[in-house]
Amino acid sequence: MSNSTRGQRQRRRMTTLSVLALAGLMAGQAGASPAKAPPDALASDPARMGWMVGSPPPADRTLRFDDGSYFRFPAMRWSVAHFRQLMPTVNVSRGLAAPQPLPLALREDIDSLKFLPLGRSEPMSWQESLLANYTDGIVVLHRGRIVYERYFGVLKPQGQHGAMSVTKSVVGTLAAMLVAEGRLDPQRRAADYVPELAASAFGNATVRQVMDMTTGIKFSEDYADPKAEVWAHASAGSPLPKPKGYRGPRSYYEFLQTVKPLGHHGEAFGYRTANSDALGWIVSRVSGRSVAELLSERIWSQLGAEQDAYMTVDSIGTPFAGGGLNTGLRDLARFGEMMRNKGAFNGRQIIPAAAVEDIQNGGRPEDFAKAGYKLLPGWSYRSMWWVTHNEHGAYAARGVHGQTIYIDPKAEMVIARYASHPVAGNAANDPTSLPAYHALAKLLLGSAP
Q: What CATH number does the domain located at 1-182+289-449 have?
């Protein structure tokens, strides 16, 4: 076998080693359109395509983690609702208490709601936008009641779905909670809490800079470049055996210690998944719990959730803080409703109100502007949440392929959406998502109390 062939095979294997690590793709980056238009939402419906049906499934409908077939479109539309079947995970327990019901107040006027997509001259209906964005499931809460709920493909109310980089916002919320409780000082250096990071680019960054992704680190997420740091991150985080001769880091923690500096901390926002992993390590060290354990103890078991959540893990069981969370859709909405209510839900104050208020206030728009998000003018980033600074004070958790928690405090609205758009970057679905959310907020805002 030639060195060229061996190298190609190893790169292909590295691609499949940790596709979940690639869920740290820039949520909101401009994703290049495929050379050939992908099948639309109806043609790519995973239930219609019959992925993984049978005992065993037919060879042409069998998906595997180790060869990467599970994350190729359109197969990934099945996989995002079945990650636990394909890779190692750790549970996020909902506890033993009874679920807290979400009251129903379903409306019939939402599907026909019209809005104007960004950059277009013709309006679109809410119902049409769901197909345009390859929606797998969506729940809308208004004043804590379900006013809209739809499921498509293989996602069911009792199912779970990958949250992708929405995970970052959940981890950011855990950190904000520890800050509000005085257990984590955002002005101290990351290395003060995790000495193992001292020699890395994170060592002299403040915790706040890590939380807001204003660190100066060398971490390219250019997947066309085989030398980009994202490949080392993916390989380190993979739970699969490493290729023969591999000498790189073998866990997320080992990888973080290798991150080099680039630029200066605190100068600009730069979306890098490595920040979320570093924050997860800090949170775990301060709390004495893994991210999954802390999430269960402090939030998930307090929400009255219907289902356990779970997180994907690396080879030593470290939860992937950058994109490994999987939840039921209604439970994702419960989390959003807790945030809308300043950290209160299910009859208790789960997150300190000060933590939520700090997130809502946002970061520095001038720092965010340097990242060049053309579809997000005037936004900012705070504790791993995206803040719109619009007239409603809306803010969001965002993940690749269309995962979203969108919170509009003025309209008393929470939207939780799971999706499997063929293009990873949210720039592909924002034009038909963001104006739809705002139009719905205006509709609900005009509703009688």
A: 3.40.710.10
